[in-house]
Specification:
Layout: E1 2-9, H1 16-25, E2 33-37, E3 42-45, E4 60-66, E5 78-80, E6 84-92, H2 100-103, H3 108-118, E7 121-129, E8 132-137, E9 146-149, E10 153-157, H4 160-165, E11 172-173, E12 178-183, E13 186-191, H5 205-224, E14 229-233, H6 238-248, E15 253-261, H7 265-276, E16 281-286, H8 288-302, H9 307-325, E17 330-332, H10 337-341, H11 345-354, H12 356-368, H13 370-384, E18 388-390, H14 396-404, H15 421-430, H16 434-437, H17 444-447, H18 450-460, H19 465-483
Parallel strand pairs: 14-15, 14-17, 15-16, 17-18
Antiparallel strand pairs: 1-4, 1-10, 2-3, 2-4, 5-6, 6-7, 7-8, 8-12, 9-10, 9-11, 12-13
Length: 484
């Protein structure tokens, strides 16, 4: 696990020093090794200063900041046959994925396309040849990857700041399920595996819940297989409760971690839910001034001063920090369930105001943008702490099935009823307690008290929240870009 960079100099100049600049600004504090490679040679060291780059002279360079999660994880980049190098960031649930580029005689573009199309997992990868970069990303795209170019450079990175550092100011999310070929003419994308609107299926609630249960059991099993212990970001709600229930029978030790500001009602609910699941819970409560202390770092990690993303990012920062302190390397989280199964209040509002077809389109649009609105943010924060965040809901198979379900299995056109109906049916069928299956959806930024605390901090400065976050972000941006 780690963060990658790849660069192509459009003027055919040596890109090594520019790549080093990109590596230096990557943020994971848990990095154990850095690696850099041209198509012909590679160097790996415990610090950037120990990388041997004197003999590298190539317009294409690739790099990686590496943290070991599983014992089989190895530092990268990896040299391939016939003058090429690879960085593969993420996790797959198929054997021998990383060796396919080395052992197959097919064209690398063909192998890369087959990987995106056929392999289950959360991953991004880049390959460099002498005058070309090949890059790809899985269809859901939990692992961050950004791209951009200017008149001199074309580059990719796991963090936008690595692109900003080299003068690529417009850093865009790499499109999910796509393959890109990058040369001096820029980026050429090919769609390989993406969700599309399809005619809805019309199963009964019982049939849909049974199918969904199987998909969730498979997804959760894949994400905890071989792990002796795993953490769960635990609120006590439907999503984290269901993940916990499914995972506890597939791994030896579960660690439920709950974070919040002091004096929030949800903390007692989380404790009660953990007790009913017969699992211990680690509870950590924070003060408002602790938000002020970590706010610049959170903004630097999520790379934008968005109020909603910030108020969600802060609890995620705390929960992954605590997991790291407990020496836990893998954490499960429930992201994706709200988009797939109609969990947000705005879907009911859409239904009432604009009708079911507009609501279906809004849900599909949110699913297609989920990598940008949620998953990338959370993965970057977890990566900083050396924790691999895994999302059992956020799989292509579940997304595909959920997108075909009729709206009435997800929500009712009433503001007084519960949402995510089919998911609640799954939880009831499995025997989860009513305190979880019938708990209304409440957004984490409100249940933890973080959203209100940010408003108070902004008011103390005499600023609206947007401006307060923008000014705080600009300060940390100016400091880090100058120092790094």
């Amino acid at each position: 696990m780690g963060a990658l960079i790849a660069i192509l100099d459009r003027n055919n100049k040596n890109a090594t020093e520019t790549a080093i600049m990109m590596l230096k600004i990557l943020t994971p504090k848990s990095t154990e090794y850095f690696g850099i490679a041209s198509p012909q040679t590679t160097s790996i060291g415990k610090t950037i200063g120990k990388l041997k780059t004197g003999n590298m002279n190539s317009p294409t360079i690739i790099g990686y900041a590496f943290t070991k999660i599983l014992k089989e994880d190895k530092p990268q980049p990896i040299l391939l046959e016939n003058a090429a190098a690879l960085v593969f960031e993420g996790r797959t649930y198929s054997d021998k994925t990383r060796t396919c580029f080395q052992k197959s005689k097919a064209k690398r573009e063909t192998i890369a396309e087959a990987l995106i199309k056929n392999v289950h997992g959360d991953f991004a990868f880049t390959i460099i040849e002498s005058e070309k970069i090949i890059a790809g990303r899985d269809a859901i795209s939990a692992k961050p990857l950004y791209y951009g170019e200017n008149k001199d450079l074309a580059a990719l990175a796991s963090e936008r700041k690595a692109l900003w550092k080299i003068g690529v100011n417009k850093a865009e999310p790499f499109p999910p399920g796509h393959l890109a070929i990058v040369d001096r003419n820029g980026f050429k994308f090919k769609s390989v595996k993406t969700l599309v609107s399809s005619p809805p299926k019309t199963p009964t609630m019982q049939v849909a819940a049974k199918k969904l249960q199987k998909l969730l059991q498979c997804s959760t099993q894949e994400r905890v297989s071989g792990l002796k212990e795993v953490a769960v970001a635990f609120s006590g709600g439907l999503d984290s409760g269901l993940i916990t229930f499914l995972a506890k029978n597939a791994t030896q030790t579960m660690h439920l971690i709950h974070v919040s500001l002091e004096d929030q009602l949800e903390t007692e609910h989380a404790k009660q839910a953990a007790e009913e699941l017969k699992l211990p819970i680690h509870t950590y409560l924070y003060k408002q001034q602790q938000i002020e202390q970590i706010l610049p770092e959170v903004l630097w990690l999520i790379e934008e001063p968005d109020p909603v993303k910030t108020s969600i990012g802060i609890p995620l920062y705390w929960v992954t920090e605590r997991a790291a302190e407990l020496k836990l390397k893998v954490m499960l989280a429930g992201q994706g369930a709200d988009e797939y199964f109609g969990g947000y209040q705005r879907y009911v509002d859409d239904y009432l105001q604009r009708g079911p077809e507009k609501t279906k389109k809004a849900i599909l649009d949110d699913i297609l943008r989920m990598h940008e609105t949620n998953l990338e943010r959370d993965s970057k924060i977890a990566n900083y702490h050396g924790v691999e965040l895994r999302f059992p809901f956020a799989t292509y198979q579940i997304a595909e099935y959920a997108s075909q379900l009729p709206l009435q299995l997800k929500l009712e056109p009433s503001k007084t009823t519960l949402r995510k109906l089919v998911l609640r049916k799954v939880a009831k069928n499995l025997g989860l307690p009513k305190s979880i299956t019938e708990k209304p959806k409440k957004a984490i930024q409100y249940t933890t008290g973080v959203s209100k605390a940010l408003q108070k901090l902004a008011k103390k400065q005499g600023l609206p929240v947007n401006q307060y976050l923008q000014e705080t972000f600009q300060k940390i941006y100016n400091k880090r870009m100058r120092n790094d």
